Amino acid sequence: MEFERFFELPHQLECFRNKLEPSLLNTSLIIPYHRITSLSESKFAGNPYLPKMQNYPKDPDGDYMYLLAQINFAKAPLMFPFPSQGIMQIFVSKSVCYFENQVQEFLFQQYFKIRYYATVLPEDQLTTDFTFLKSSSNEVFPIIQNEMALTFTNRVEPVSATDYRVEKYLPLSSFGVISEDERTLEDIYFEKYLAAEHKIGGYPYFINSDKRKDSSFLRKYDTLLLQIVSNDEQGIMYGDTGILKFFISKEDLINLNFSNIYFHGEQY
């Protein structure tokens, strides 16, 4: 599947096109909408695809985790390095939903869990009775109020305003006022390329700062596996209008190795 490489720029930024083109990445924006889904469909919340021989994930406290997102790659038009088939799931613990700090980060999959199934089994080989979840203390998912089906819109995007790599392509603070209304390059770029959307791939949005900038270890997590942002209208709320991000290295993604993930959550 080919993505159109042309991208629109505000007229004030047109002179910077050549600087930004090398930063272009493919992304799929996610549009969630309320609908009951099948077990194998892409979704936010709801019941997961779960083979009968597989246990439902629990956190270290022994509580069942919540299904945050499920992506059926065969039905999602994503480009390389994302797979073209299989199902990926992200589960989160109750402790992820309730936190006091502005930022929470995890590298070990204790309070979140990624699962990937390369082969999708027929429904008669899947768990279909999830009443055990309703009898647990985790019945109501604090982040996503209701199950949501997903659609995907593909595009290319330049580096986002808060990704640490922006300074490599366009040092925003080096330019002053560039528009007739006395806005700076930084003002215009933040307005256009904040990247505060649900998405797979592309560039992330950070409320505070991108901690990968000062960590050679964290910089290996160079691919945005999933970003979910708070949205009142959609019934999605993480902390105080927060954002959930999951990063993976491109190499691990190509090799379908989902064991090494950087989880970054933050709120206002």
Question: What spatial order of strands do you see in the largest sheet?
Answer: 6-4-3-2-7-1-8
Distance between the termini: 38 Å
Number of strands: 11
Low-confidence stretches: none
Structural class: alpha+beta
Q: How many strands, which pairing sense, and closed or not: the largest β-sheet? A: 7 strands, antiparallel
Classify the beta-strand content into a percent band: 15-25%
Radius of gyration: 19 Å
Helix content: 10-25%
- What is the N-to-C succession of helices and strands? HEEEEHEEHEHHEEEHE
Write up what this structure looks like.
The chain is an alpha+beta fold and 268 residues long. Helices cover 11% and strands 25% of the residues. The protein has six helices and eleven strands. The strands form two sheets. Strands 6-4-3-2-7-1-8 form a seven-stranded antiparallel sheet. Strands 5-11-10-9 form a four-stranded antiparallel sheet. The model has no long low-confidence stretch (mean pLDDT 91).
Descriptive tags:
single chain; globular; alpha+beta; 6 helices; 7-stranded antiparallel β-sheet
Short characterization:
With 268 residues, the chain is an alpha+beta fold. The protein is 11% helix and 25% strand. The strands form 2 sheets. Strands 6-4-3-2-7-1-8 form a 7-stranded antiparallel sheet. The protein has a 4-stranded antiparallel sheet with strand order 5-11-10-9.
Topology, pairings included?
Layout: H1 17-20, E1 25-34, E2 43-44, E3 66-72, E4 87-92, H2 94-97, E5 103-106, E6 112-117, H3 131-134, E7 148-157, H4 166-169, H5 185-192, E8 199-201, E9 223-229, E10 243-248, H6 250-254, E11 262-266
